[in-house]
Amino acid sequence: RFLAVNRVEGGHTKAPAPTIPDPPVPAALYAKGLDVRAGPVPVPLQLQIPAIGVNASVLGVGVTPNDVMDAPEGPAHDPVWQQAFWYRGSAVPGVISTALIAGHIDGPRGTQAVFGHIDELKPGDAITIHDNRSGLDVHFVVTRSVSFTLEEAAGKSALRQMYGVGPVAGTTPQRATDGVAHLTLVTCAGTFVNGTHDHRLAVFAKRVA
Length: 209
Prior knowledge:
Elements: E1 7-9, E2 12-14, E3 41-49, E4 54-61, E5 84-87, E6 98-102, E7 126-131, E8 137-149, H1 150-153, H2 156-163, H3 165-168, E9 182-193, E10 196-207
Parallel strand pairs: 4-5, 6-9
Antiparallel strand pairs: 1-2, 3-4, 3-7, 5-6, 7-8, 8-10, 9-10
């Protein structure tokens, strides 16, 4: 059994500093026990980026048999091209950790997809994660954007920046040491070569409310 002990300085008892609670976050987004290798599931979130006209529903995705984050595709009329993909192995958006959300840059036959304009985002632009159940809005602002080559994007340094330390190490999301909730938006970029784009664009944001 532990007893709380106040520090004594200069003959006076100093009370411990009050604990500041973490800001509210969305509740659990999918059924408990869902494996990270299971297929995509809808989650009750809306991704809103006013500067580029994004108001997208969100799928919770895991990893493919090739151990890469799932990015569902479909025929031209499939709504998946206009949906965002929250990686279930990352943090719930708003938690003091790192959440990652991806999206397609383009769709079949040259159509524009949900993240077709995220290269236009600049520091200070607003991003909101809206919880459709409670009405909670988690607000972020863009801090920077980085374009990685495919080789760079596969390296641990870039992966830690995008996903946070936990998922890269094969564990659950870890609390951010700076005490801030981080959000990463990721999409393809560059030139389409050999079935994929040759760069990945990451837009980094931090929670402000």
